[in-house]
Amino acid sequence: MFTESVEKLASILKNGGIVIFPTETVYGIGALATNTDACLKIYSIKNRPSDNPLIVHFADKSEIEKYCEVSAIAKVLLDEFSPGPLTLVLKKKSDSLFSCGLSTVAVRIPDHAEARKLISLSGPIAAPSANPSGKPSYTKMEDVLEEFSGKVDGFLKATEPSYSMESTVLDLSQGKVSLLRTGSIDRRMIETRLGIQVKVHESSEIISPGMKYRHYAPNGKIFISKILPSVQAIQSKHYIVSNHLENSMDKSIPKIARIGFTMSDISNFDKIVFHNLEYMKSLYKFLLDCDKANIEIIYCQEPKDGEHADTIWDRLRKASSA
C-alpha cells in the first residue's frame, strides 16, 4: 500500500495501523504511542528485541509537556534544538505512552513539516528507524518500499531525510545531562549551549534505543582503517573470507568496497567523500548498497577530527562490532 495523504495515514494510525514516514534523520516505522498493541506490532515487523525502547515523536513542545516532566534544562534544549535531530529521555507523567514498562520515555520533535503534520493529526507516534533490527537505517524511499511493502499499512511519500543519521539522545531523567547516543548535534554544541560538561552514559540500564544491541551492521565484515589500503592489498589479506569457504579447498577473491577521503585506486563499489558531513550523510546508503551488491569486505576510513567525527565513529564501531 502506498498513500500520499497525511489525513489517510493519521486515520490508519488511530485505527491501530503501522505506517512508514520520513523525518529529517531517517525513515521511521510508527504506531500511535498510546496504543500498546499497535506499538508491539513494530517489534514483530522489525524483529526488534522486546526490551529496546521506542522514541515517541511529537508535533510541538506543548504536547511533550502534557505527557512528560519537562525540566528547565529540557526547555532550554527544546528551545535551542527542536524541531530537530535531538531526543530527550524524560520522566513520564502517566503510563499512557508506550515505553517498554519504563518510568521514562524518549521524545523528540522532528524537523520535517510533513511528519509533524501527520503527528498533529494522529497524536504522538512511537517510531524507531524503519529497517530490520540491527541493520543500517534507511534514508531512501525505494529502500523502505522494497523492505516493508506488504508488512505495514501505509507509506508517506514526502521529503526524504536530509541528515541521514539518527538523532542525538540525551538522558535528563536523573537530574543531569547524559549522552546516550551522538548524532548531528554533537556533545560540544550541547555543552556550549548549556555551559556545563555533558557526561557519556555508562549505566547498563536500557532507557533509549541503540544502547545494547549491535546496530547499523551490513552483511559484510567492516574494517576501520586510518589509511585505506589498495584493493590488491585487501584481496591479499582476505583471500578466503566467507564462512562457507573457510573449510573448502576452493579459494575465492572477496568482493570489496571502501568509503573514505583518499584512495590510491578506485573500484566500482567505492565511495569517496570530501568531509565528515558528507561521510555522515552517505554512510548508511553506502552500507545498504554493499548488501545489495553482496560485498563481503568493507573498509571504512577513520573520520577527520572535528565536527561529526564522534557520530561517525559511533556508527562505525557499532556496525563493526561482533
Quick overview of this protein structure:
This protein is an alpha/beta fold and 322 residues long.
Radius of gyration of CA atoms, rounded to a whole number: 20 Å
CATH architectural category of the largest domain: Alpha-Beta Complex
Mean pLDDT across all amino acids = 90
- Helical content, roughly? 25-40%
Assign the structural class, choosing from mainly alpha, mainly beta, alpha/beta, alpha+beta, or little secondary structure. Answer: alpha/beta
CATH topology of the largest domain: DHBP synthase
Summed up, the helix count is 11
Number of strands: 14
Q: Into how many domains do the coordinates divide? A: 2
Cα(first) to Cα(last) distance is 36 Å
| Poorly predicted runs | 241-245
Please give the CATH class of the largest domain.
Alpha Beta
Net shape: globular
Strand content: 15-25%
Order of strands across the biggest sheet? Answer: 7-1-2-6-3-5-4-8-9-10
Described by strand count, sense and barrel closure, the largest sheet is: 10 strands, mixed
Element-level helix/strand string = HEEHEHHEEHEHEEEHEEHHEEHEH
Instruction: Give the full name of the CATH homologous superfamily of the largest domain.
Output: DHBP synthase
